[in-house]
């Protein structure tokens, strides 16, 4: 039976199909759904989300023609180009169909797309539907795109090694090193084009951020001068959205029972997210650093994340005997629950933005081992702005790893960080409660979407 007089309002989400991007997009969907919107997720068949985790959403698989394509992380730019090329027409056709079927799906108010998924904006623009960008990383990282493009325009690349520790103009607390462009190299043209595309808003009418005024106000206000569209910093999504699994890999829940047996704040949790990989040498040195630290640890080693092996075959001989029940190794964990567990007292992380937010929201201080992209800027902020993380200075030196673990887990320096990160957690909680900055921003976003002419 149709409900007369009450028209459903729907938003169409277009995620970039990798774990660290699809998770915040689905969390945003959940947040908007709780605010009364119908949610449609238009997604590639490659790395498709599992619809059974979100029975409240409508899922629209798009033909991406990626079967047989090299979709490894090293081929990212080609994957992005192929998705943007191949999905535009199928998405446009799906939008037309959605609009024809409005009684069932609700009135399509807008498309919300990942900045990398520019086909979402093109198709929306073609059909005169407003589009908004969801920035799944923070504003500081978006600033680095602008700075790199500006430096390129001024012929500043290649950067000299001697400049790497100098401050970057206009970005609070960053050094050239934190931009992630190594010394003495020219930036390849396709990479520059990627930065330009992702930082160009085109016809999109607003930016939604999975960040927060507490964390990012300087960069947000600087960027607001550049982009003359409304900003809606409504994060951290992981705390605003009710928990639901968005994992591509199966979560090994038995590690929760192991955690139940450990003392409060005693366990170091280790994970490098869904994409980063390491060399055998780092695996070995991390293993001995952990063994020699004497701390209990829960270590996520993703299949194929150690170069040259399927899983943990390259762990050093004698390591498992040395640590016994003190260590637990899994392929993939229920990370948000792990970080919320009272036994977890520290997180050795690659500083992906989701992991960073999840750790801050559970008041877990960090050891920072960034690998690429925004992980470098996040690590810099964790260690030098918010002072809730220690830098891991040498990832292939077991003594340095052991010392850093002890500093965080046992020494006074770690205790001071634990106090500071607890204050940050409280501020983040306040920001999403009634009257807080993210709470207000979310209300403004809802009004903004509803203000679009029908
Ligand atoms: C990618 C980029 O690498 C990252 O820098 C960017 O900020 C987002 O996109 P990823 O490397 O996967 O993401 O890191 P992160 O952003 O931390 O996201 C990983 C997600 O996987 C987190 O939500 C985390 O909770 C989840 N996870 C990780 C698990 O659920 N279980 C695990 O065992 C490991």
Automatic annotation (TrEMBL):
Organism: Cinchona calisaya
Family statement: Belongs to the UDP-glycosyltransferase family.
One Pfam family linked to the record: UDPGT
Record GO terms (molecular function): UDP-glucosyltransferase activity
Swiss-Prot/TrEMBL GO biological process terms: (-)-secologanin biosynthetic process
PANTHER family in UniProt: GLUCOSYL/GLUCURONOSYL TRANSFERASES (PTHR11926), UDP-GLYCOSYLTRANSFERASE 76F1-RELATED (PTHR11926:SF1374)
Name of this protein: Glycosyltransferase
PROSITE patterns, per database record: UDPGT (PS00375)
Superkingdom field: Eukaryota
Top enzyme class: transferase
EC number: 2.4.1.-
